[in-house]
Design goal:
3 domains, five-stranded parallel beta sheet, disordered C terminus, alpha/beta, binds magnesium ion, two-stranded antiparallel sheet, cytoplasm, Helicase, Ruva Protein, domain 3, binds adenosine-5'-triphosphate, 16 helices, EC 3.6.4.-, 349 residues
Protein backbone atom coordinates (compact mmCIF):
# COMPACT_ATOMS: atom_id res chain seq x y z
CA UNK A 1 0.00 0.00 0.00
CA UNK A 2 1.03 3.56 -0.50
CA UNK A 3 2.86 5.76 1.97
CA UNK A 4 -0.07 7.89 3.03
CA UNK A 5 -2.05 4.96 4.31
CA UNK A 6 0.85 3.31 6.08
CA UNK A 7 2.00 6.50 7.70
CA UNK A 8 -1.12 7.01 9.74
CA UNK A 9 -1.97 3.39 10.27
CA UNK A 10 -2.19 2.80 14.01
CA UNK A 11 -0.58 -0.63 13.54
CA UNK A 12 3.21 -0.81 13.90
CA UNK A 13 5.48 -1.47 10.89
CA UNK A 14 7.89 -4.35 11.15
CA UNK A 15 10.95 -2.18 11.66
CA UNK A 16 9.08 -0.01 14.10
CA UNK A 17 9.25 -2.40 17.05
CA UNK A 18 12.84 -1.52 17.96
CA UNK A 19 12.28 2.20 17.82
CA UNK A 20 9.04 1.87 19.76
CA UNK A 21 10.87 -0.01 22.49
CA UNK A 22 13.34 2.86 22.75
CA UNK A 23 10.55 5.43 23.10
CA UNK A 24 8.45 3.49 25.58
CA UNK A 25 8.00 5.09 28.96
CA UNK A 26 9.31 2.66 31.58
CA UNK A 27 7.48 3.83 34.69
CA UNK A 28 3.97 4.97 35.48
CA UNK A 29 5.00 8.56 36.18
CA UNK A 30 6.60 8.82 32.72
CA UNK A 31 3.41 7.59 31.07
CA UNK A 32 1.65 10.59 29.56
CA UNK A 33 -2.12 11.13 29.51
CA UNK A 34 -4.84 8.58 30.41
CA UNK A 35 -4.95 10.29 33.80
CA UNK A 36 -7.85 8.24 35.09
CA UNK A 37 -6.35 4.91 34.08
CA UNK A 38 -3.03 5.91 35.58
CA UNK A 39 -4.57 6.84 38.90
CA UNK A 40 -6.75 3.74 39.09
CA UNK A 41 -3.85 1.52 38.20
CA UNK A 42 -1.48 3.08 40.67
CA UNK A 43 -4.02 2.39 43.44
CA UNK A 44 -4.41 -1.22 42.36
CA UNK A 45 -0.65 -1.73 42.29
CA UNK A 46 0.14 0.15 45.44
CA UNK A 47 -2.44 -1.61 47.57
CA UNK A 48 -1.30 -5.00 46.28
CA UNK A 49 2.27 -4.19 47.17
CA UNK A 50 1.20 -3.15 50.67
CA UNK A 51 -0.61 -6.41 51.14
CA UNK A 52 2.34 -8.20 49.64
CA UNK A 53 0.08 -10.06 47.23
CA UNK A 54 -0.11 -10.08 43.44
CA UNK A 55 -2.66 -7.49 42.28
CA UNK A 56 -5.94 -8.34 40.60
CA UNK A 57 -5.83 -9.31 36.96
CA UNK A 58 -5.90 -6.29 34.66
CA UNK A 59 -7.63 -5.98 31.29
CA UNK A 60 -6.68 -3.15 28.96
CA UNK A 61 -9.03 -2.31 26.17
CA UNK A 62 -8.51 0.29 23.49
CA UNK A 63 -7.51 0.88 19.89
CA UNK A 64 -4.12 0.09 18.39
CA UNK A 65 -1.18 2.28 19.41
CA UNK A 66 -2.75 3.80 22.52
CA UNK A 67 -0.26 2.31 24.97
CA UNK A 68 -1.57 -1.10 26.06
CA UNK A 69 1.72 -2.98 25.66
CA UNK A 70 3.55 -0.06 27.22
CA UNK A 71 1.30 -0.19 30.28
CA UNK A 72 1.69 -3.96 30.62
CA UNK A 73 5.45 -3.51 30.80
CA UNK A 74 5.04 -0.69 33.28
CA UNK A 75 2.86 -2.87 35.54
CA UNK A 76 5.62 -5.47 35.79
CA UNK A 77 8.26 -2.79 36.33
CA UNK A 78 6.27 -1.06 39.07
CA UNK A 79 5.73 -4.39 40.83
CA UNK A 80 9.38 -5.27 40.36
CA UNK A 81 8.31 -8.57 38.84
CA UNK A 82 9.35 -10.40 35.67
CA UNK A 83 7.07 -10.17 32.64
CA UNK A 84 6.11 -13.09 30.42
CA UNK A 85 4.67 -12.11 27.05
CA UNK A 86 2.42 -14.11 24.77
CA UNK A 87 -0.59 -13.45 22.58
CA UNK A 88 -4.01 -14.88 21.88
CA UNK A 89 -3.15 -16.28 18.44
CA UNK A 90 -0.13 -18.12 19.91
CA UNK A 91 -2.42 -20.00 22.32
CA UNK A 92 -4.04 -22.38 19.91
CA UNK A 93 -4.24 -25.36 22.21
CA UNK A 94 -4.77 -25.61 25.97
CA UNK A 95 -1.32 -27.22 26.15
CA UNK A 96 0.30 -24.03 24.87
CA UNK A 97 -1.14 -22.13 27.79
CA UNK A 98 -0.48 -24.90 30.33
CA UNK A 99 3.20 -24.84 29.39
CA UNK A 100 3.37 -21.16 30.24
CA UNK A 101 1.21 -21.20 33.35
CA UNK A 102 3.02 -24.12 34.94
CA UNK A 103 6.38 -22.36 34.68
CA UNK A 104 5.37 -18.97 36.07
CA UNK A 105 7.18 -17.86 39.19
CA UNK A 106 5.29 -16.37 42.12
CA UNK A 107 4.06 -12.85 41.40
CA UNK A 108 5.13 -12.95 37.75
CA UNK A 109 3.13 -10.84 35.32
CA UNK A 110 1.73 -12.72 32.34
CA UNK A 111 0.83 -10.46 29.43
CA UNK A 112 -1.56 -11.88 26.84
CA UNK A 113 -1.86 -9.51 23.91
CA UNK A 114 -4.90 -9.78 21.61
CA UNK A 115 -6.52 -11.90 24.28
CA UNK A 116 -9.80 -11.97 22.32
CA UNK A 117 -8.13 -14.20 19.75
CA UNK A 118 -7.33 -17.05 22.12
CA UNK A 119 -8.66 -20.50 21.27
CA UNK A 120 -11.62 -21.76 23.26
CA UNK A 121 -9.95 -24.63 25.19
CA UNK A 122 -7.13 -22.32 26.28
CA UNK A 123 -9.71 -19.80 27.37
CA UNK A 124 -11.40 -22.31 29.61
CA UNK A 125 -8.11 -23.29 31.16
CA UNK A 126 -7.42 -19.63 31.82
CA UNK A 127 -10.68 -19.17 33.78
CA UNK A 128 -9.57 -21.68 36.38
CA UNK A 129 -6.02 -20.41 36.46
CA UNK A 130 -7.14 -16.83 37.03
CA UNK A 131 -9.55 -17.74 39.79
CA UNK A 132 -7.94 -20.60 41.67
CA UNK A 133 -4.34 -20.59 40.43
CA UNK A 134 -4.84 -24.12 39.24
CA UNK A 135 -4.89 -25.91 35.91
CA UNK A 136 -6.32 -29.28 35.01
CA UNK A 137 -3.96 -31.20 32.78
CA UNK A 138 -5.77 -33.79 30.70
CA UNK A 139 -3.78 -36.96 30.20
CA UNK A 140 -4.75 -39.49 27.57
CA UNK A 141 -7.67 -39.49 25.16
CA UNK A 142 -11.20 -40.82 24.99
CA UNK A 143 -12.88 -42.67 27.89
CA UNK A 144 -9.54 -43.42 29.56
CA UNK A 145 -8.57 -39.76 29.80
CA UNK A 146 -7.99 -38.39 33.27
CA UNK A 147 -7.40 -34.89 34.42
CA UNK A 148 -4.70 -34.05 36.88
CA UNK A 149 -5.06 -30.86 38.87
CA UNK A 150 -1.87 -28.85 39.15
CA UNK A 151 -1.30 -25.86 41.40
CA UNK A 152 0.39 -22.89 39.81
CA UNK A 153 2.09 -19.91 41.40
CA UNK A 154 -0.13 -16.89 42.06
CA UNK A 155 0.45 -14.54 39.15
CA UNK A 156 -1.08 -11.44 37.64
CA UNK A 157 -2.64 -11.66 34.24
CA UNK A 158 -2.59 -8.55 32.08
CA UNK A 159 -4.76 -8.91 29.00
CA UNK A 160 -4.91 -6.47 26.11
CA UNK A 161 -7.60 -6.25 23.49
CA UNK A 162 -8.67 -3.88 20.75
CA UNK A 163 -12.09 -5.53 20.83
CA UNK A 164 -13.36 -5.91 24.38
CA UNK A 165 -16.80 -6.70 22.99
CA UNK A 166 -15.51 -10.02 21.65
CA UNK A 167 -14.39 -11.27 25.04
CA UNK A 168 -16.71 -13.89 26.52
CA UNK A 169 -18.36 -12.62 29.69
CA UNK A 170 -16.83 -15.27 31.97
CA UNK A 171 -13.37 -14.12 30.94
CA UNK A 172 -14.18 -10.43 31.22
CA UNK A 173 -15.65 -10.95 34.67
CA UNK A 174 -12.48 -12.51 36.00
CA UNK A 175 -10.50 -9.33 35.61
CA UNK A 176 -10.50 -7.24 38.76
CA UNK A 177 -9.79 -4.06 36.90
CA UNK A 178 -10.40 -2.92 33.34
CA UNK A 179 -8.45 0.02 31.95
CA UNK A 180 -10.27 1.73 29.10
CA UNK A 181 -7.71 3.46 26.93
CA UNK A 182 -9.10 6.34 24.94
CA UNK A 183 -7.71 8.62 22.26
CA UNK A 184 -5.27 11.23 23.58
CA UNK A 185 -5.87 14.97 23.64
CA UNK A 186 -3.67 17.03 21.35
CA UNK A 187 -1.99 18.63 24.39
CA UNK A 188 -1.05 15.16 25.69
CA UNK A 189 0.37 14.17 22.32
CA UNK A 190 2.45 17.34 22.37
CA UNK A 191 4.02 16.06 25.57
CA UNK A 192 4.59 12.64 24.00
CA UNK A 193 6.24 14.34 21.02
CA UNK A 194 8.40 16.62 23.13
CA UNK A 195 9.62 13.64 25.12
CA UNK A 196 10.32 11.56 22.00
CA UNK A 197 12.09 14.49 20.31
CA UNK A 198 14.40 14.74 23.29
CA UNK A 199 15.18 11.01 23.12
CA UNK A 200 15.76 11.17 19.36
CA UNK A 201 17.68 14.48 19.51
CA UNK A 202 15.20 16.25 17.26
CA UNK A 203 14.95 20.02 17.55
CA UNK A 204 11.20 20.38 18.11
CA UNK A 205 9.84 23.71 19.36
CA UNK A 206 6.31 23.80 20.85
CA UNK A 207 4.62 25.08 17.67
CA UNK A 208 6.12 22.21 15.67
CA UNK A 209 4.93 19.74 18.31
CA UNK A 210 1.50 21.32 18.19
CA UNK A 211 1.22 20.92 14.43
CA UNK A 212 2.23 17.24 14.53
CA UNK A 213 0.05 16.50 17.56
CA UNK A 214 -3.16 17.73 16.00
CA UNK A 215 -2.60 15.50 12.98
CA UNK A 216 -1.80 12.34 14.95
CA UNK A 217 -5.28 10.84 15.26
CA UNK A 218 -5.15 10.96 19.04
CA UNK A 219 -2.61 8.13 18.96
CA UNK A 220 0.93 8.16 20.45
CA UNK A 221 2.22 5.58 17.97
CA UNK A 222 1.18 7.78 15.05
CA UNK A 223 2.59 10.89 16.74
CA UNK A 224 5.99 9.20 17.10
CA UNK A 225 5.90 8.02 13.51
CA UNK A 226 4.96 11.41 12.10
CA UNK A 227 7.75 12.92 14.19
CA UNK A 228 10.30 10.72 12.46
CA UNK A 229 9.00 11.58 9.00
CA UNK A 230 8.95 15.28 9.82
CA UNK A 231 12.49 15.00 11.16
CA UNK A 232 13.65 13.45 7.85
CA UNK A 233 12.02 16.27 5.95
CA UNK A 234 13.48 18.99 8.15
CA UNK A 235 16.99 17.54 7.92
CA UNK A 236 16.94 17.18 4.15
CA UNK A 237 14.95 20.25 3.12
CA UNK A 238 15.82 22.64 5.96
CA UNK A 239 18.26 23.06 8.82
CA UNK A 240 16.73 20.43 11.11
CA UNK A 241 14.58 22.77 13.17
CA UNK A 242 10.98 21.55 13.11
CA UNK A 243 9.00 24.76 12.77
CA UNK A 244 5.25 24.79 12.29
CA UNK A 245 5.74 25.42 8.56
CA UNK A 246 8.20 22.54 8.19
CA UNK A 247 5.91 20.16 10.08
CA UNK A 248 2.95 21.23 8.01
CA UNK A 249 4.80 20.95 4.67
CA UNK A 250 6.13 17.51 5.58
CA UNK A 251 2.74 16.17 6.63
CA UNK A 252 1.09 17.57 3.52
CA UNK A 253 3.71 15.76 1.49
CA UNK A 254 2.81 12.51 3.26
CA UNK A 255 -0.91 13.16 2.68
CA UNK A 256 -1.87 13.42 6.31
CA UNK A 257 -4.57 16.05 6.30
CA UNK A 258 -5.17 18.89 8.74
CA UNK A 259 -7.24 16.74 11.07
CA UNK A 260 -5.01 13.69 10.77
CA UNK A 261 -7.28 11.82 8.36
CA UNK A 262 -5.44 9.32 6.22
CA UNK A 263 -6.34 7.64 2.96
CA UNK A 264 -8.52 4.99 4.52
CA UNK A 265 -10.42 7.57 6.56
CA UNK A 266 -10.96 9.71 3.50
CA UNK A 267 -11.90 6.69 1.42
CA UNK A 268 -14.53 5.67 3.96
CA UNK A 269 -15.91 9.19 4.13
CA UNK A 270 -15.76 9.61 0.36
CA UNK A 271 -17.70 6.42 -0.30
CA UNK A 272 -20.22 7.18 2.41
CA UNK A 273 -20.91 10.60 0.92
CA UNK A 274 -20.53 10.10 -2.82
CA UNK A 275 -21.88 6.60 -3.17
CA UNK A 276 -24.42 6.39 -0.41
CA UNK A 277 -25.50 10.02 -0.13
CA UNK A 278 -24.35 10.17 3.50
CA UNK A 279 -25.97 6.90 4.60
CA UNK A 280 -27.23 5.15 6.56
CA UNK A 281 -25.19 2.27 5.23
CA UNK A 282 -24.10 -0.99 6.88
CA UNK A 283 -20.52 -1.58 7.96
CA UNK A 284 -19.89 -4.50 5.64
CA UNK A 285 -21.28 -2.67 2.60
CA UNK A 286 -19.03 0.24 3.41
CA UNK A 287 -16.01 -2.03 3.85
CA UNK A 288 -16.57 -3.76 0.52
CA UNK A 289 -16.88 -0.38 -1.20
CA UNK A 290 -13.45 0.74 0.08
CA UNK A 291 -11.90 -2.69 -0.48
CA UNK A 292 -11.06 -3.39 3.18
CA UNK A 293 -12.05 -5.95 5.79
CA UNK A 294 -15.01 -4.85 7.92
CA UNK A 295 -12.81 -5.28 11.00
CA UNK A 296 -10.23 -2.83 9.63
CA UNK A 297 -12.89 -0.23 8.98
CA UNK A 298 -14.47 -0.84 12.36
CA UNK A 299 -11.32 -0.89 14.52
CA UNK A 300 -8.95 1.38 12.61
CA UNK A 301 -10.95 4.06 10.79
CA UNK A 302 -14.32 4.32 12.44
CA UNK A 303 -13.53 5.09 16.09
CA UNK A 304 -11.51 8.12 15.02
CA UNK A 305 -14.11 9.34 12.53
CA UNK A 306 -16.80 9.01 15.17
CA UNK A 307 -14.66 10.80 17.69
CA UNK A 308 -14.05 13.64 15.20
CA UNK A 309 -17.80 13.97 14.77
CA UNK A 310 -17.59 13.07 11.08
CA UNK A 311 -19.71 9.95 11.17
CA UNK A 312 -22.23 8.48 13.56
CA UNK A 313 -23.12 4.87 14.22
CA UNK A 314 -26.84 4.35 14.27
CA UNK A 315 -28.95 1.22 14.51
CA UNK A 316 -29.60 1.50 10.76
CA UNK A 317 -25.97 1.92 9.79
CA UNK A 318 -23.26 4.54 9.44
CA UNK A 319 -24.34 8.12 8.79
CA UNK A 320 -22.26 11.10 7.73
CA UNK A 321 -22.61 14.30 9.74
CA UNK A 322 -22.70 17.80 8.29
CA UNK A 323 -19.01 18.18 9.21
CA UNK A 324 -18.17 15.23 6.98
CA UNK A 325 -19.58 16.98 3.93
CA UNK A 326 -17.71 20.13 4.89
CA UNK A 327 -14.47 18.24 5.49
CA UNK A 328 -14.43 16.82 1.97
CA UNK A 329 -15.60 20.14 0.54
CA UNK A 330 -18.85 18.65 -0.74
CA UNK A 331 -22.34 20.08 -0.62
CA UNK A 332 -24.87 17.72 0.90
CA UNK A 333 -27.92 17.04 -1.30
CA UNK A 334 -31.05 18.77 0.04
CA UNK A 335 -32.43 15.48 1.33
CA UNK A 336 -29.15 14.29 2.87
CA UNK A 337 -30.43 14.50 6.40
CA UNK A 338 -34.09 14.24 5.39
CA UNK A 339 -34.68 10.69 6.53
CA UNK A 340 -32.27 11.35 9.31
CA UNK A 341 -32.09 8.64 11.88
CA UNK A 342 -30.73 10.99 14.50
CA UNK A 343 -32.19 14.41 13.75
CA UNK A 344 -30.91 15.93 16.99
CA UNK A 345 -27.37 15.09 16.00
CA UNK A 346 -27.54 17.52 13.13
CA UNK A 347 -29.35 20.30 14.90
CA UNK A 348 -26.19 21.48 16.58
CA UNK A 349 -23.99 21.12 13.52
N1 LIG B 1 1.10 7.32 27.35
C1 LIG B 1 2.17 7.29 26.57
N2 LIG B 1 3.19 8.14 26.77
C2 LIG B 1 4.25 8.12 25.94
N3 LIG B 1 4.39 7.29 24.89
C3 LIG B 1 3.41 6.42 24.65
C4 LIG B 1 2.25 6.37 25.48
N4 LIG B 1 1.44 5.42 25.01
C5 LIG B 1 2.04 4.89 23.94
N5 LIG B 1 3.24 5.49 23.72
C6 LIG B 1 4.14 5.21 22.60
O1 LIG B 1 3.37 4.68 21.53
C7 LIG B 1 3.92 3.45 21.08
C8 LIG B 1 2.80 2.45 20.90
O2 LIG B 1 2.30 2.07 22.16
P1 LIG B 1 1.94 0.54 22.49
O3 LIG B 1 2.80 -0.39 21.72
O4 LIG B 1 1.94 0.40 23.96
O5 LIG B 1 0.45 0.48 21.93
P2 LIG B 1 -0.59 -0.73 21.98
O6 LIG B 1 -1.84 -0.17 22.59
O7 LIG B 1 0.01 -1.90 22.64
O8 LIG B 1 -0.87 -1.02 20.44
P3 LIG B 1 -1.34 -2.42 19.73
O9 LIG B 1 -2.82 -2.53 19.93
O10 LIG B 1 -1.00 -2.21 18.29
O11 LIG B 1 -0.57 -3.52 20.37
C9 LIG B 1 4.97 3.04 22.11
O12 LIG B 1 6.18 2.77 21.49
C10 LIG B 1 5.18 4.23 23.00
O13 LIG B 1 6.44 4.81 22.72
MG1 LIG C 1 0.52 -3.75 21.87
Amino acid sequence: MSGGRDLVSPEPDNDEYAIEAALRPKRLDEFIGQARVREQLSLVLESAMRRNRPPDHVLMSGGPGLGKTTLAMIIAAELGMPLRVTSGPALERAGDLAAILSTLSEGEVLFIDEIHRMARPAEEMLYLAMEDFRVDIVVGKGPGATSIPLDIAPFTLVGATTRAGLLPAPLRDRFGFTAHMDFYEAAELEQVLTRSARLLSVDLPPEGAHEIARRSRGTPRIANRLLRRVRDFSEVRADGLVTREIASAALNLYEVDGEGLDRLDRAVLGVLLRKFGGGPVGLSTLAVAVGEEPETVEVVAEPFLVRQGLIARTPRGRVATASAWAHLGLTPPPDAFGASVLPSLFDEA
